[in-house]
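Re-running the complex after MR caught last week's input typo. The corrected sequence lines follow. Everything else is unchanged.
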Amino acid sequence: MLKFTLRRLYQTVIVLLGVTLVTFIMVNVVPGDPVAVMLQKKADDATINRIREQMGLNDPLPAQYFRFLTNAVTGDFGNSYFQKKPVMELILRAFSVTGTLAVLVLAFAIILGVLMGTLAAVFRGKWVDRVIMMISTLGMAAPSFWLAIILQLIFGLTLKWLPISGLRQPNAYIMPSVALGMIYAASLARLTRTNILDAMNQDYIRTARSKGVGEFFVVAKHAFKNAGIPILTYLGTLIKSILGGSVLVETIFSINGLGRLLVEAIMKRDIPIIQGCTVYIASVFVIANLLIDLTYGLFDPRIRVAGPAKR
Amino acid sequence: MSIKANAKVQDAAYTSFYHDAFVRLKKDKVAVACLVFIVLLILVAIFAPLIAPYEEGYQDTSAILEGPSSKHWLGTDEFGRDILTRIIYGSRISLSVGLIAEAIAVTIGVFLGALAGYYGGKIDAVISRIIEVFASFPHILFAIVIMFVLGTGVINVFLAIGFVGWTGIARIIRAQVMQLKEKEFVEAARASGGSDLKIILRHLIPNCLSTIIVVVTMAIPSDIMYEASLSFLGLGVQPPVSSWGEMISMARKYLRTNPTYSVFPGIALVLTVLAFNLLGDALRDALDPKLKNL
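Corrected-run output:
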């Protein structure tokens, strides 16, 4: 387990380095001079050149990357061109919003998805199963941004139950969480159903049943725990998708989160924010994945010894 | 499968793997319905000028933001353009994104995945890290940043979505090639003097074909959603080109007064994604049940 942990840590560092490199290369191949953008073409060439010199934009690219990397390690992504504030400050403020939303989306998706999936598996072939599968098939086909608009139309404009934008009241979190979480609840339901059905066919379930364990405990204790690993694996992807999907939902519900910060920075070509947001979001995912990998052992003692199988 | 059907399959002189799979697929009524829907959609996209009630971009200034009527079945938008016409033309963008972006993703993914799986060792370690790096960015976010780099436009949408989607394919092909390269037929090919390149192209990749078909079919609906999302954010296909995502984005302003304007392009999007999702499921069951957890 120690060897496995160390290897995963080493891999994580390499991947994080790669993330910064890919991001740096992408934003630096964009045509156009960031300083000219920043000054909105109001300055003469000499001034632009002086500022470029000050910002280190005249240095060779490898030197610029090295500086970006060493600063990024200390949590410094430079200053926004337009807001004149440290990018990290803007990111952290936005992330507290997106993070809250993401936790709610995750909770909604896991509770609804695992519940529906388990019910479908227990009542396999019955109408409960069929209805749940139908809902989840539909749920997987509805894009979050359209679902958000339909929810706004029904619960915001027609029924007037929920506010259609902002996050001023606690109930304002409901629509964004449902709009973004539905697709993941749907796919989790399918995943849970498949894995519980698989687990139910295993020998240890037969053993448990033959020992006279009640059906509820068979599902709750044995099938559930063994169906947990694929679900845990899916959780990493889920976190990544939620952080990505928040871009759309935040735009629709006028939520000042990370996604909206990024989209607005792209519209204004505010490169430090684009760079910082991209690296930050990818790092959150990479570290979450590392933590997930290290918790596998809690679910399956076999992994505690050998280390998780390569996915 | 009943015993009778089983006997029938055995009676046949030669039934290829793909023929078997097709027979299995044909029994699945949902899959056949989805396939018919997709074929119809492709025909609609190709023959859009013949089918659409109005010319693309035609503005009926006497009917601005109207609801469904006999003249405009699904109503009109803020420029008096027929919404049904725009939905029909929008199918062209959605379907070509599915096709072209997947072609790009498959080319990169199969190439890198096969190299990593076949050679293993250091090459595998390097390619696997590259895959991990690119898989660390949320797809939609990565596509947004690529659109920022390339600039908006239809071709760039294809490139961005294609470049986002290759990591999943690369992982699956890598795992499959790793298993396949230990098989006797690969050993035989090597013994008879086949070069590495020939073994990969002639033996390994053709054996991954059924997986590639399943993975592509399952990735197309995501690509369609990414395009709609990008265009919805104003970073994808630009007006006046019709795209479902762009239509939904424009319709948002009139949600209060013209709710149907937002609803119809969304229904087109949901039905298309649904058809590809269900067909993908059926293809997976028919061709490659191992990919169940995808």
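None of the earlier attempt is carried over here. The interface with chain A takes residues 129-130, 132-134, 136-141, 144-149, 171, 175, 221, 225, 228-229, 232-233, 235, 245, 248, 251-252, 255-256, 259, 262-263, 266, 269-271, 273-274, 277-278, 292-293 of chain B (CB under 8 Å). Chain B has a mean pLDDT of 87.
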